[in-house]
Design brief:
It is a single chain. Helices cover 45% and strands 9% of the residues. It contains seven helices and eight strands; from the N terminus they run ααααββααββββαββ. The strands form three sheets. A four-stranded mixed beta sheet has the order 5-4-6-7. A hairpin with a 6-residue loop joins β4 and β5.
């Protein structure tokens, strides 16, 4: 399974209002639930886009991730140190829940999201500034982190939802995070609609990658093949680097 970088790379993005992002999480979760609700129950055992994970693994992870972030927000609000997961808990919980019936999985996602939304709504302004050791970042990054989990893992279900369904705002934020969290090879990105180029790595004459923002973000995150991207000078797309 692909892992995400430390959210230290996202702190520069946190001019975003966490309360606005909580609303985005509501919408994204509703969308994922609608996708799952239309499925044949046997889809639970089908492979997802994540190596070694079925659709059931992804759905269970989405629910348990909401609970992890609920614990972090609650700890920030109450002043009690909190971790997202106890040692070994993340993998054990995912394996334990992956084979549950689809109806149970959907209910779990709804209920865990409600707990997360309640925890977010209960946050006073000062609690958003509390540093979270688990994320190595302030609590204000949690709504973005949760939105990213829901949107990207919705794609990982390998069903009807693709990076083309991401909002422009989400794709731009994800791309900026990717640029700060990837380690080589060097390249310059010129997404359509963005005024300034984005640079990864340091090289004298790096290739320039152009194309839709959503396509570049999908390619760098391992959720797209980059077939509609261009490379200058002409050549093959470089292999995206790994997370730092």
């Amino acid at each position: 399974m692909l892992s995400w970088p430390s959210l230290r790379s996202v702190q520069s993005l946190m001019t975003m209002d966490p309360l606005v992002l909580l609303t985005d999480v509501d919408r994204a979760t509703d969308s994922l639930v609608r996708t799952a609700s239309d499925l044949d129950p046997t889809v639970i055992s089908q492979p997802s886009l994540l190596p070694g994970w079925t659709v059931g693994h992804v759905l269970t992870h989405v629910a348990r991730n909401a609970d992890a972030y609920t614990r972090l927000l609650t700890g920030a609000r109450t002043g009690s140190p909190a971790e997202g997961y106890a040692p070994g808990q993340r993998g054990a919980d995912i394996e334990a829940g992956a084979t549950r019936p689809l109806r149970e999985q959907i209910a779990d996602i709804r209920e865990s999201h409600e707990r997360f939304a309640d925890a977010g709504a209960a946050m006073p302004a000062e609690a958003w500034t509390v540093h979270l050791d688990f994320l190595k970042a302030p609590a204000a990054v949690v709504p973005w982190a949760r939105l990213r989990e829901v949107e990207v893992h919705h794609v990982d279900l390998a069903l009807s939802y693709t990076p083309a369904d991401w909002s422009d705002a989400f794709a731009q934020r994800l791309l900026k995070e990717l640029v700060t969290g990837l380690d080589g090879p060097a390249m310059v990105l010129r997404p359509f609609g963005l005024e300034h180029a984005l640079t990864i790595g340091d090289a004298a004459d790096p290739p320039v990658i152009g194309g839709p923002t959503k396509s570049i973000a999908a390619w760098l995150s391992g959720r797209g093949d980059g077939a509609d991207l261009t490379v200058s000078p002409d050549g093959q797309l470089p292999a995206p680097g790994r997370w730092k």
